[in-house]
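Quick one: structure tokens for this chain, please?
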Amino acid sequence: MPAGPEGREAVFKFLARDVRWEARADFPDAGVYVGHNGVREFFERFRPVQREMWFEPEEFRCGGRGEGSGPDFVESQAWVFTVRGRAIAHVKEYASKRAALKAAGPEE
């Protein structure tokens, strides 16, 4: 998805209107953000320190460009999605793939 404001907004075409986004518990902005407006509020919390935001679904990586000195960053995380119909209804963030797989349940 594109960087900048377009990146922040592009994600909404994949999210259900009543999506529940659970931010990582080890982040300062931990919590549950509900609906498109809730997720926008969550994304806005990053704006003072992150000029651009992008998402890349490759074992999920997210990144952006910082404000001020403008350093780029990339962070690997693991997110578990619940899909309803054709939209993501729930997102739960984890600090590692191992934690996400454990939470998602046993392998079949």
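The first strand starts at residue 15 and ends at 23.
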